[in-house]
Amino acid sequence: MLKEFQEFISKGNVMDLAVGVIIGAAFGKIVDSLVNDIIMPIVGAIFGGLDFNNYFFGLSSNVHSAALADAKKEGAVFAYGSFITVVLNFLILAFIIFLMVKAVNNLRKRLEREKPAAAAAPPADVQLLTEIRDLLARK
């Protein structure tokens, strides 16, 4: 069983997947920072100092705080501002991945166009004459 596990782990696809997941997690953190630290403050400044992360309403009568972190301590809250931020994160990440896939596809198409066409097979009579020549050369 240990040997089978070792064979499974050592396959290229599993290692590629692991590397992809690790890079994807790191890239997700970059996008989170881009949205939370750069885009959302600009959007907030444009719309009069709005902070989407603090958009919520309490689901309990005990919630009276204006800050989301404090309100969560007081009771259940519906944090739709955080949801808006996460949706924006997703849209940015999806757009970047779309651009990356599009670039790779364009590169593949360009490489296929530049690849020289394989030599066309000679006609049947030329193939036959070549075989006859090769047989006579061996004798």
UniProtKB/TrEMBL annotation:
Which stretches are annotated as coiled coil? Answer: none
List membrane-spanning regions. 12-31, 77-101
Q: SUPFAM superfamilies from the entry?
A: Gated mechanosensitive channel
Task: Give the keywords, sorted.
Answer: Cell inner membrane, Cell membrane, Ion channel, Ion transport, Membrane, Transmembrane, Transmembrane helix, Transport
- A Pfam family of the record is MscL
This protein's membrane topology, according to the annotation, is: Multi-pass membrane protein
Intracellular or extracellular location(s): Cell inner membrane; Cell membrane
Has the keyword Signal been applied to this entry?
no
Q: Which InterPro entries match?
A: Mechanosensitive_channel_CS (IPR019823), MS_channel (IPR001185), MSC/AndL (IPR037673), MscL_channel (IPR036019)
Would the keyword Ion transport be found if you checked this record's keyword annotation? yes
What the protein does comes down to:
Channel that opens in response to stretch forces in the membrane lipid bilayer. May participate in the regulation of osmotic pressure changes within the cell.
Assembly and partners are described as:
Homopentamer.
Record family assignment: Belongs to the MscL family.
Q: Quote the protein name from its UniProt record.
A: Large-conductance mechanosensitive channel
Q: Name its species.
A: Mesorhizobium captivum
